[in-house]
Amino acid sequence: MKNILDSFRLDNKIALVTGSAGGMGAAIATALAEAGAIVATHDRKPPADTVHHIEEEGGHAAKFKADLSNPHGAERLFQHVIDKFGRIDILVNNAGIIMREDAVNVPLNDWQTVIQVNMTSVFQLSQLAGRDMMKRNAPGKIINIASLLSFQGGIRVPSYAASKGAVAQITKALANEWAVKGIQVNAIAPGYIATNNTAQLRADPERSKSILDRIPAGRWGDATDVCGAAVFLASPASDYVTGHVLVVDGGWMAR
Q: What pTM, to 2 d.p., does this model score?
C-alpha cells in the first residue's frame, strides 16, 4: 500500500502561481516547490526574490512577468510558460487587487480593472490551462484564491466583493464540467491575512480590533497559513475533491 504522505508530493509537476512576488503568492509558490514542483512564478515585475528563495532552498523555479489588467495579459503569460516548460500541471490563480472606496464614488475604470484582474483573468487562465490539459489527455489541478468576500459583502470594496463572489462560482462551474476529465478545480478562501491588501485595515486601530475580536484564533493570518491547503489541493491527495471553496480563516466564518 502506498504511503499516504507520498500522495502529497508534487515531484516533476509544473506549477504556475500568479501574483507570486510576495504575500500569499510567494508563500504558495515556495510551498509547492518544497513539495517537489517546478514553479513558474509571476507578477507585474519578474518575482526575482521568490525565485531566489526557492532556489536557495534547493527548489526549481522560473520568473515571468505579465500585466493581468490587460485583457491579453493572461494569454501572453500562459504562452510564455508553455514555451519554457511545455505544459502546466497545476495552476494557482492568486493574483488580485483591491481598491477601497465608497460605492457611490467608485470610478468605472477602477471597477473594470478589479474585475479584469480578479475575475476575468482567472477564467482566462483556467480556460487556457484546462484546454491544454484536455488536449494532452492529462489530469490537472486548478486552485483559485477566493476570499471571505466570496460569501460576504464587505465594506467599501464592491468591485472586490463582486469579483471574489464570481471566483467561487467560476470554481464550481468549471469543476462541474471538468471533473470527468480528471481536472480538479477548487478554491481557497483566506480570512484576514497580514499582506499588502490588508495594510489599511491593520493600520486602523478600531477596524483592526473589530476584526480580531471576531476571529476565534485571535490573530491575523500569516501568508504561510494557506500553504497546507494549497499543497493539498495541488496534490493527488485531493483527487476526489472538486468544486470546493476551502476557508482558511482562523474560524471567522464559524463565528
A: 0.96
